[in-house]
Every structure is written in structure tokens, then in C-alpha cells.
Design a protein that fits this description.
By secondary structure, this protein is α/β, with parallel strands linked by helices. The strands form 4 sheets. It has an 8-stranded mixed sheet with strand order 5-4-7-8-13-14-3-15, with helices on both faces. It is globular and about 55 Å long. 30% of the residues lie in helices and 22% in strands. The site of flavin-adenine dinucleotide has 34 residues, from helix 5, strand 4, strand 7 and strand 13.
Length: 341
């Protein structure tokens, strides 16, 4: 590494202070000094807790900067990206809380059962408060239990990548994440930075989820739903975003909320995000384009192909049916227009 090591100070100036931070948490995960955090009440970007190897001790580091998906904003993904095949798919076994077709759960559960991976780094949520957290999952039963999408943001999404790689020393990890997370994993995989190499080697599969935006947890759940709409999080059976936020309650009620009403809940960093389909993932998954009960799978490379084929071969995943690619392209084109004013 040269003299021009970039540190959290550069991240702070280029990403944190400019409202570009996606909240992916890659910097938090890879900082060897555990010096970056998100603090309650200030969730737009991380803070440094007062120490930095480079800044304080002159030891070249810069891991945080090297992993950040937002330092090269112009390089963000757009549209469909490169792919081999786009298929409609669903799990061939029941997945109670699946968001779309349960295909993501089926692929990962199969990979765990077959021993192709040791762990999945993903985002789970507390069923009572709906507060999401970054988690390491190692059994297919637990994974199936945690199916479904988390639309609100509370913790750095990739935070538990450090737990998986450094603490628990897993060497074959799958990461599930929204497009900014997929882009961070790509930055990590492509980097020649010494401190990122253990992470790069351990990430065997990245499944990206289509994403239009995430909402700040406090603003969505506590302010919008609880205070304003008088909906308690534990009354909610299911949330879905498809052009609007659909809230389905345990008692059978359905409350649609237009996205225009949720503008102030959107994380600032999402406003400059141009990537709908997670172009940097090995497999991307979304609802749009496929019939109800199916997941649209964008298989991007040989790695993705391999995991999908194994799940089909083991009878865990069923594929088939037409995908409306033009519908995905229309939504992707809308997102690709976002930019910093
Ligand atoms: C914030 C967000 C916005 C989305 N917006 C759209 C959209 O506009 N259009 C569209 O077509 N699809 C969208 N999706 C994707 C869609 O909701 C489904 O995730 C996708 O279709 C896969 O469905 P599935 O049934 O195969 O996944 P499941 O089998 O239900 O598995 C989902 C997996 O993803 C993990 N997960 C859930 N939420 C997160 C998260 N926030 N970060 C990381 N991992 C997570 C779960 O732990 C689980 O392992 C969005 C997803 C998210 C999280
Ligand atoms: S975008 Fe991700 S890596 Fe970059 S500063 Fe924000 S949390 Fe850290
Ligand atoms: S829109 Fe989705 S992918 Fe983009 S920054 Fe927000 S959470 Fe990340």
C-alpha cells in the first residue's frame, strides 16, 4: 500500500458528510480496530469512536475506505447488469414466511444442508418490534424460520460479516443483501488490500435482493406506523413493497401506504442509489417480473449457476415460467435516474 492510504477521514469527507452512506456496514465490519459504529439517534452514517490505526499510530490501514461502495458513486450499477439467465423459481418445500417464492431460502438452505457453505450472513428481525439485526445463520431450519424481507434499517447490514470471518472463522460464507451490500462485497472481493483478503476468500456466494429503498426503523416503525397510523409492530403479519408499502395485520386488515407518504422515512443514502437489481451479486432475486408465489432469479455467473443447479438437482428448488423482463427494466430505468442534485 502506498503513502496515499485513505482513512475514515476520507470516508467522512466523501461519504458521511455528503449523505451518500448507504448504511451497508462494510466499513464497520472490516475496521480492524472496531473503531467505526452507528450510534442511536444518528443513523445516516457511522462515526469514528476516537481511534484509527492510520491516523493515531501511523500504521497503514484504510480497510474501511477500500470496502465502501459509495466512494465511487458514478461506478454504481444500473439496469439489469450482466447475466446468464433469468428464471422464475420457488422453493419446492413450504417456507412459511417467504417474501416471494422462497427461492432465496431454498438455495441457501440447500447449500447449508449439502455443506457447500458454513454460514449465511443475512438480516433477521425481532418478531415483536420488527427491529432488524445483522446475523450469522448456520442451520437450514433457522434460515427457513427467518425467511421474508426486512424493509427497515437499524444496524449496519454487514456488521456480522466480521463475526462470521474473524470470530467464528468460517471459511465458506454466503452473504444475502440489498444492492449496496452486494456492491460492498464486490469491492471486498476485488480488492488487493491485505486486510480485506480474509473476507474476500471467505465469501463464496452473494445473493442480492432487488431494492428500491430502505426506511429508517425509527422513522418508519415508531413514527409512521406506531405514532401516526396507530399500528403496533407486533400486530403486523407481513410487510411488502411493490409500488407502495402494504401492511397486512394479524386480524386480516390490509393497510396500503403510498410511497410518497414515506418520503421522509427513506434513508438519505438511498436517494442517490441507482442499482435496483444488485448487479454485483452472483444471483439476484426479486418479486417483480414473476407471477405471485415465485421469485425472479437473475443468475449472473458460474458461481450463481452452480448453487441454483444444486438446489434444483436436490429437489429443493423448482424453476419455470415466463419472466417479464421488460417490467424489471422499467423499474430499473426509474431507479437508474436517481442522482445527487
Ligand atoms: C429493502 C428491500 C426492498 C425490496 N424491494 C423490492 C422491489 O421494489 N421489487 C422487487 O421485486 N423486490 C424487492 N425486494 C426483494 C423481495 O422482497 C424479496 O426479497 C425477493 O423477491 C426474494 O424473495 P424470496 O421469497 O425468494 O426470499 P425469501 O425466501 O423470503 O428469503 C429472503 C432472504 O433474505 C434475507 N433478507 C431479508 N431482508 C434482508 C435485508 N434487508 N438485507 C439482507 N438480507 C435480507 C432473509 O434473511 C432471507 O434469508 C426488496 C427486498 C428488500 C430487503
Ligand atoms: S456506504 Fe457502507 S462502507 Fe460506506 S461509509 Fe456507509 S456504511 Fe460504511
Ligand atoms: S436503495 Fe437499497 S441498495 Fe440502494 S442504498 Fe438504499 S438500501 Fe442500499
Amino acid at each position: 500500500m502506498g503513502m496515499e492510504t485513505k482513512t475514515f477521514k476520507n470516508l467522512e469527507a466523501e461519504v458521511w458528510a455528503t449523505d451518500l452512506c448507504s448504511g451497508c456496514g462494510a466499513c464497520v465490519a472490516v475496521c480492524p480496530a472496531d473503531a467505526l459504529r452507528f450510534v442511536p439517534g444518528k443513523t445516516d452514517a457511522p462515526v469514528n469512536i476516537g481511534y484509527c490505526k492510520s491516523e493515531n499510530d501511523g500504521v497503514p490501514c484504510g480497510a474501511c475506505y477500500a470496502a465502501c461502495p459509495r466512494v465511487d458513486l458514478a461506478g454504481q450499477g444500473r439496469m439489469l447488469g450482466a447475466y446468464r439467465e433469468i428464471v422464475a423459481a420457488r422453493s419446492a418445500f413450504p417456507v412459511e414466511n417467504k417474501q416471494s417464492g422462497g427461492a432465496v431460502t431454498a438455495i441457501l438452505a440447500n447449500a447449508l444442508d449439502e455443506g457447500l457453505i458454513d454460514a449465511v450472513v443475512t438480516v433477521t428481525r425481532d418478531p415483536w418490534t420488527l427491529k432488524p439485526s445483522s446475523a450469522v445463520i448456520t442451520s437450514s431450519d433457522a434460515l427457513i424460520h427467518h425467511a421474508g424481507s426486512r424493509y427497515s434499517w437499524w444496524v449496519p447490514l454487514l456488521a456480522s460479516l466480521k463475526e462470521a470471518v474473524v470470530t467464528r472463522k468460517y471459511r465458506r460464507i454466503a452473504v444475502v443483501g440489498v444492492p449496496c451490500v452486494a456492491r460492498a462485497t464486490q469491492a471486498i472481493r476485488a480488492s488487493d488490500h491485505d486486510l480485506l483478503r480474509p473476507y474476500a476468500k471467505a465469501i463464496r456466494l452473494v445473493i442480492g435482493l432487488f431494492c428500491t429503498e430502505t426506511f429508517d426503523y425509527a422513522k418508519l416503525v415508531e413514527e409512521k406506523l406506531q405514532s401516526e397510523k396507530k399500528i403496533e409492530p407486533w400486530e403486523i403479519q407481513r410487510l411488502d413493497v411493490k409500488g407502495k408499502l402494504d401492511v397486512y395485520l394479524q386480524d386480516g386488515r390490509h393497510i396500503p401506504i403510498p410511497l410518497a407518504d414515506l418520503e421522509e422515512c427513506v434513508r438519505p443514502g438511498c436517494r442517490v442509489c441507482t442499482d435496483l437489481t444488485a448487479v454485483d451479486a452472483d444471483i439476484s432475486a426479486g418479486a417483480i417480473g414473476s407471477p405471485d408465489g415465485y421469485t425472479t432469479l437473475v443468475i449472473r455467473n458460474d458461481i450463481g449457476r452452480g448453487f441454483v443447479d444444486r438446489a434444483v438437482w436436490k429437489g429443493k428448488l423448482a424453476t419455470g415460467g415466463n419472466v417479464d423482463i421488460a417490467a424489471i427494466e422499467r423499474l430499473a430505468a426509474k431507479k437508474a435516474e436517481r442522482r445527487k442534485e
